[in-house]
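Blinded run. Sample ID left blank on purpose so nobody reads anything into the name before looking at the predicted structure. Input follows.
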Amino acid sequence: MTHRPSEEPLRPVRPHPAEPAGDRDRPPRPDQVDPAVLGALLHRHGWQRRGGAPGRYGRWTPPGPGGSGTSLLVPESRAFPDSEDLLGEALTALYRSGSPAARDVLLGLTVPSDEIHWWRDVPAGPAGASTWTVEEQLRTAARQVLFAGALATRARAGYHGARHRRSAAAALEDVLVGAAPGGRRLAAFVPAATGRPLAVRLHHALYAAREAVDYQRATGGMDAFDGAVEAGVSHELAEALVALVRGTQGARIAVEWAPAAGVPEGCTTSSEPVEFSPGDLPALRAAAARYLREEPSVPVRLTGAVVRMRRSGPRGDGTVRLKVIAGAEVPHVRMTLDEEAYRIAGHAHLVGLPVRVHGRLESRGGFRRLTGASGVAPVQVDEAERDRLMKSLQENLDFFEEACSGD
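Blinded prediction complete.
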């Protein structure tokens, strides 16, 4: 029998827009921009301050070769009459520029964002280009790191499996991504208003992972990884770091705070990138395996709709698949029921009612199996919910036929 995937596909992080979010017809208005924030963003994205009138404005040139031919005059504050005009001219010049450094600055002004940067030390291709594979490896690993951070904001666990995946994926929907040429760098912009918990948790988790790896390499012990779970380190983060470092001479990750939102409590003003090297891979792989092996099962009481039933004959135990409605942050679970419980689940399925069941959500298989299932009983729902469940039943006639046939 063909089984449907037990995980819903993750939505990809949206690409960095060609123009900044918000009003795409013009640059941000000068009266909405703090000169200090603009200066901080220019510095962050590689612009160089090259003189200017002290106390009034600075002259900034863009990064990269040939940057000296273009410059911006940015006021240091609004204390002088010409500050508004200078801001307007600087913003217009940024808006008309086609460089990634200009777009990233405008994005930071339009949507105040904490920024997460990745670097991978890989050989450059012809003319500084990278192969398709190198580019995809960076993007895939970066997304895994972000997703692990989002999972850690939902719960502290050594292994998340199928738990919290939908809510973690939803937390990445507003994240914007911008890449630097060459496939060796990537930046993610996490809106500070909604995504700061993700950036903070990832910041703490990366440092905890670095310390745990150092401890393991120095002593051979894995104990530090146990304590690192509370900071957000998990099987998923360890696997993401392995994917980031594998095939490189080293990799770095840095979290930088939105200047307009300030530094969150418990975090440093300026943090150096956290570095990982190929020599860290054995410790990271061992930690990932340890988390996967030792995460305990969880007692739960689930409410769910029966969507699939199967047993080898007309009588005896059978396997049931539930679409989880409440009780656990997983989309589906499978369980084995005795003959009476299987009959109850089948009747509930036929009339479009969900069931409630007690058991333990097993970590093996990703928290997708319920063991020791007991107390199976139909749950009464209002007419609207019942109609919705019946419609779902009619749309899945293959499940209905399996329930009735006993095959």
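Unblinding after everyone has recorded impressions. Residues 298-405 form a domain with the OB fold (Dihydrolipoamide Acetyltransferase, E2P) fold (CATH 2.40.50.590).
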